[in-house]
Specification:
15 strands; 8-stranded mixed sheet; about 35% helix; binds aspartic acid; about 425 residues
């Protein structure tokens, strides 16, 4: 039978009632047999995420301090959830073991992973499903990449009938030590399981109905994004639209398994489908995302275009300072490099001095206070009139465009504006296309 993988985020498993709710969601479709869970998240605005409490416990234990207070909150939460769900699981014993392991100096990754581990134990017991220890199957190398053997191992383990529950967020090193992904990494586990079982869909259940075409804090009531491609979502995620962990795209995009972002509070809402290809006829631009906090390093030198290696030397200065860059639009005698402010922090003067010394430019300066806005849509760069519409919208709103980068990807036009113009610019672009 076709299989669907469902990943439930922290807010969907935050308490017993929400776990009952996800059971109702799972029961709606018999193909939903592979369940990946996060650790319980916040139940309200002032609440604490279990993962944050676990990190805190580890830090305290590491400094030889008492963990009683945060561990008490962890214990209470799991006891309450499992008691309320009346699962037959010795949660007290599992918690006592964890308490002891933390005090005995367990690694940070191990401690953090227990949030998902315990949650998956409870959900598996409640669903009468099979708990699968992620660390026994998912191998993560030193660069944080998932080793190929993980897929084989999972697919043979998950081959019987029935429901399986897998904790998200972690696997193990090739040496067998528990290792977590970066924060929000349960999305990655869901994608790995989806690829391993060759799912027909990877449903990612959250507390929002998928992506919106722009940030609701900037644009009033932005339209929902119904269908978007893997490449488009990656560009948007990179520019700050974050509902879904960007690294979670790769395992499923390879296999063209669609990702469906859904809302546990409105299970009938279709959410957003992330697919390999979409019909771009009715919607050219799928989303507009942006970020503030960028600086421009501007270098001018007459006859720069004749100097072989000028760009390389500029980039190696940045490299020597450990600075990664975002874009590098260049002219005949000018080069500008856009970097995020946190990359430059505390290094500006030294970078300037090195550029002056090593490149002897006619002019160099670093100015901060820029925002970048990405207007994203497959094939839009080749579509006549799109760029004109974008620039006209900004001109009509009286916004001065400081940077234009159509880059090498044909799905994205990036404009840089002054921070003060950021919100107006996003609104103007949204009005023009959505
Ligand atoms: N629990 C982990 C975190 O808070 C992973 C996740 O929820 O995806 O980052």
């Amino acid at each position: 039978m076709d299989a669907v993988v469902c990943k439930f985020g922290g807010s969907s498993v935050a308490d017993a009632e929400r776990i009952r709710n996800i059971q109702a969601v799972v029961r709606l479709d018999p193909r939903r047999r592979f369940i990946v869970v996060s650790a319980p998240g916040k139940r309200n605005k002032t609440d604490k995420k279990i993962t944050d409490l676990l990190y805190l416990c580890h830090e305290l234990a590491d400094q030889g301090l008492d963990i009683d207070e945060p561990f008490h909150l962890i214990r209470e939460r799991y006891i309450e959830i499992s008691g309320d769900l009346e699962v037959s699981l010795d949660i007290t014993k599992l918690l006592a073991d964890l308490d002891e392991q933390i005090r005995a100096g367990a690694s940070q990754d191990f401690v953090a992973s227990r949030g998902e581990f315990l949650c998956a134990q409870i959900v598996a017991a409640f669903f009468h499903g099979t708990f699968i220890e992620a660390a026994d199957h998912i191998t993560i190398d030193s660069e944080g990449m998932v080793e190929e053997r993980s897929y084989k191992s999972l697919s043979s383990t998950l081959s019987a009938e029935g429901i399986y529950v897998i904790p998200g967020f972690y696997g193990s090193t090739p040496e067998g030590e528990v290792k977590t992904f970066s924060r929000g990494g349960s999305d990655i586990t869901g994608a790995i399981v989806a690829r391993a079982v060759q799912a027909v869909a990877y449903e990612n259940w959250t507390d929002v109905s998928g992506f919106l075409m722009s940030d609701p804090n900037i644009v009033a009531n932005p339209k929902p994004m119904r269908t978007v491609t893997y490449r488009e979502i990656r560009e948007l995620a990179y520019m700050g639209a974050n509902v879904f962990h960007e690294e979670a795209i790769f395992p499923v995009s390879r296999e063209k398994i669609p990702i469906n972002i859904r809302n546990t509070h409105y299970p009938k809402d279709p959410g957003t489908m992330i697919v390999a290809q979409r019909d771009t006829k009715d919607r050219v631009v799928v989303g507009i995302a942006g970020k503030i906090g960028f600086s421009i390093i501007f270098v001018e030198k007459l006859l720069m275009n004749k100097q072989v290696g000028f760009g390389r030397r500029l980039f190696s200065i940045l490299e020597a300072h450990g600075i990664s860059f975002e874009h590098a639009p260049s002219g005949i005698d000018t080069m500008s490099v856009i970097v995020s402010d946190d990359q430059l922090k505390g290094k500006t003067q030294r970078v300037l001095e090195d550029i002056k010394k090593q490149l002897e430019p006619d002019r160099v300066d670093i100015s901060s206070g820029f925002a970048l806005i990405a207007t994203v849509g497959e094939g839009m760069v080749y579509r006549p009139g799109i760029a004109a519409r974008l620039f006209a919208a900004l001109a009509n709103a009286g916004i001065n465009i400081r940077i234009i980068d159509q880059g090498s990807s044909e799905i994205n036009i990036i404009v840089g504006v002054e921070t003060a113009d950021f919100e107006n610019a996003v609104q103007a672009i949204y009005q023009a296309f959505c």
